[in-house]
Structure formats: structure tokens, C-alpha cells
Amino acid sequence: MAGETSEDVLDERDQRLVAALQCDGRLAADRAAEVLGLSPRVVHRRWAALLGDGTVRVVGLPAQPVPPAGMTLRIKVLRGRTEMIAKALAEREDVPFVDLSAGGDEISAILLADTAAPHRLLHRQLPATNAVTSVDAQTVLHVFKGAQDWRHDVLTAAERGALTPDFADPGAQADRGDATDRALLAALAEDGRAPAAAVARATGHPESTVRRRLADLRACGLLRTHVHVDARRLGLPVDANLLMRVAPGRLDAVGRTLAAHPAVHGALATTGRANLHVAVWLPDLPALYAFLTREVGALDVAAVETLLVGRAVKRPGA
Questions:
Q1: What does 34-90 look like in DSSP terms, one character per residue?
Q2: Mind listing the UniProt keywords for this protein, alphabetically (predicted)?
Q3: 116 Cβ partners below 8 Å, 6+ apart?
Q4: Which residue(s) pair with 97 in the sheet?
Q5: What backbone phi and psi angles, to 5 degrees, belong to 112?
């Protein structure tokens, strides 16, 4: 339930080690130890434990110069049927996000789709499902912050800067990449920290080629990593989606301002009356109230609807 604190919250050291991986999922333990003031042995041991038991998962992401087209979905469902509908949505490759509301009667999701043409899910499958009472679909116009951009706010700016690689802009490399590069990226989709030897075995390419190609892909910004970790393990049990109505002339400024806040793990400009969708992770409900009244209240936001997430059914990397 939203607002419940996990009894297994990671200690400060482990949270800082998770944050280090967010800076660079393929970060070497020796470098992390140097920047964070720990021994390499401790970093090796704690990362092995966190990655080994599934607390943390690092996946490789091919950089996308142009974000895929998408839609936000709000699906009202008869009580008692939400789990079934959410499970069906989560099994789809074109649905990377599925949340159940704390109230138990609504599903929030992101659908990756060509919005220029009718989509079978929206126009046929969901309307034909008796358990679904209504569907609201809005097109994503701009992404201010995606899940892969969120950083747990436990490192100093200097530490984060020292651990974050200086990636090139992937937009300038849009036409790069061949079959070998695609094979290497696919091999890292399940384990973004897989060593070159493991990637070589999985792809059949020589290890020397793999090392050289991976270094080149990283330098060009075409290989990024995403760290999945249950935010409750980081002491952030409140997961909320904020649907805001912002004047068009202020939408970009408000979106960028909120996206820069450490509590925000997603921010999208969309069509519809609520034209700014913001997702936050916070330690408790008083912190959510403070975020709404202070951070959002200080901006030119005409209205906001707050939806508490009861359970995150599917998130990137999970």
C-alpha cells in the first residue's frame, strides 16, 4: 500500500552504492570505492549481494535519438477485476508501465504506439472487455524526464559528477550501428553489467571485438544503462502520479522545473485537460503534501489531481 515503509529499507551505504550504479551501470567497483570513500572489497561484496538477490537490476538500454511515440492510459475497471486487466497489459511488450491505484479501481499505463493510426488495444480490445468501464488515452507530446533519468538523492553533486560518464549526444549518431552492435546491445538487455567475456559467449563474437565495440558504443552515447530498484527499499514508499493543468505558455518552464526535482521520476507533457503528468517517490504522506503545497504551489499550475499508486505492476527493468 502507498505510504507503508518497507521493513527492509537499505542502509545509507547500500543506498549510495545503488545511486552510484544509477550514474553508470557498468561502473567499476574500484572507481566507486575511490569516489565514495569505501574499500573496493566492500563495494564488490555489497554489489554482489544486491545484484545477486534481485534487489537491484541493471539493464542495458540502446540510446534512442528520437523517443518512441506513446500514450498515457487511465483505465477504470470493475472492482475485483483490476489484477486480471493489469496482468494482461503487463504482458505486452508495447506497455512498459502499469500501475494499480491505491483505490483499487483504476489502472494507469503507458502505451508505446503510433498515435497517427487507430490502435487495436484502444479501439477494440479494451472496449470489448466487460470489466473495463472507461478508457482515457492521451498522446505524449514531450518527455521532460524518463525513468532512466531518475537519480536517488543521496550523493553529493561532486560525487555524482565524478561517477557519471561524459556521454556524447546520441542524436548525432542516429545512423550508427550494425548487426554486431545490435547483437551486443541485445545481450546487455537482461544484464547491463555482463562482462565482455559473457557477452562474447552469448553473441559468438571475439572478446577483443566485444570490448572494443562496447567501449565505442558507450563513448558515442549509444549504450546507456537503467537501474531498477524498488523505491520502498530506498525509504520512498509513497508513489504518486500528479495530473496537472498548466497554461500553454508556462507548460515548458513548469515541466522542466518539476523534472529537476529529486522526487520526480517521470514528467510528461500530454494532450488533454491535464497536460502535465508528473510521477513522484516520497518518504511519507506529509512529504507529498509539502511537495504539492510548496513545489507545485509555487508554480503556475491551475489544477492538480493526485493519484496514489497502490502497486507498481510493471516498470522498466523490472
A1: HHHT--HHHHHHHHHHHHHTTSEEEEEEE--SSPPPEEEEEEEE-TT-HHHHHHHHH
A2: DNA-binding, Transcription, Transcription regulation
A3: none
A4: 110
A5: -90, 115
